[in-house]
Amino acid sequence: MILGAVQRATKARSVIDLFSGTSRVGHALKAAGYQVFSNDHNTYAATLARCYVQADAEDVIDDAAKLVREFNNLPGKPGYFTETFCEKSRFFQPKNGARIDAIRESIGAKGLDPELEAVMLVSLMEAADRVDSTTGLQMAYLKTWAARAHNDLTLRVPDVLPRAKHGKGQATCLDALDAAAQLEADIAYIDPPYNQHSYLGNYHAWESLVRWDKPEVYGIACKRVDVRQRQSIFNSRPKFAGVMRRLLNAVRAPIMVISFNNEGYLTKDEMEAMLGELWGGTGKVTTIENDFKRYVGAQIGIYNLKGTKVGKISHLTNKEYVYVVSRESLAERLALMRVGDGDGMGLVA
After folding, report:
1. Stated pTM of the model
2. Which candidate in 60, 135, 153, 273 could, as Cys together with 96 as Cys, close a disulfide (CB 3.0–4.6 Å)?
3. Cα separation of 87 and 89, whole Å?
4. Mean pLDDT in each 10-residue stretch from start to end of the chain (349 residues)?
């Protein structure tokens, strides 16, 4: 839906992705030919963007394939990762933790070019993700081992794309407000944290794997201690509206595409009003609506530390909003997204 909105909104050549996360959107935009400027303040996310947006296949893919073959033959050597995420907690089987330790140490010892290093770190991150024992988030691990956790960790070469038609991408690891002030493009895509859930807390093991700083941890999930300090202002209900307004006014792009949902800190009416205030009150807003399933944890319910179900499932779907704002109305162009997509999407101008 995001790619479709960008393609229909304008004849853009470049896109800023201020909260790149997993880089799925940035990767899709690069595949469509856009020059993409990805940003995220978490190191694991910036590394994903350096692999999937900044690195180009023609520069790294051959070396990456050789390193994958080399690292897949390394024997395991238990270290920090095994102790923290296999013994103190149960995110991974010890056999796989030992392989992760050995491969991560080897990546660090190679002194690789930053783009190739990012590709190898993503290869390791994704290999670990395929053998973890969670429901997708690292807030907790399963009481009994997931079936995939018994598999042997195996690296694969990530799906690195050739250079985009409209130019080489860029990955940065900045605060979103700083990135908004520095980056400039035809369109800005904005998908901020819009409730209390911290992405760093949800994916803390990847942050530690990529940084390899071997931090102190706390709690049953062995979260990095800096999860308590490195909190995004976008996770704060009382501060969200103010920082979102500051961000929107700092963005250097004539068109913005904002992803939000009905569990966010702003209602649909509040968001549309805020966007309409842009450029001296001349912002024209088109809203695309779509129903989608909630995250896996919401599907299975709430459990206490003993594994006993203690909460009821309130609802299984959310309403997703994609707001497109510019100085001219784009409702007519975006209305095409209602035709034949079969996903229950509606459009409000």
Report:
1. 0.89
2. 153
3. 5
4. 83 96 97 98 98 98 98 98 98 98 98 98 98 95 97 98 98 98 97 85 97 98 94 92 97 96 93 97 93 55 56 65 92 65 43
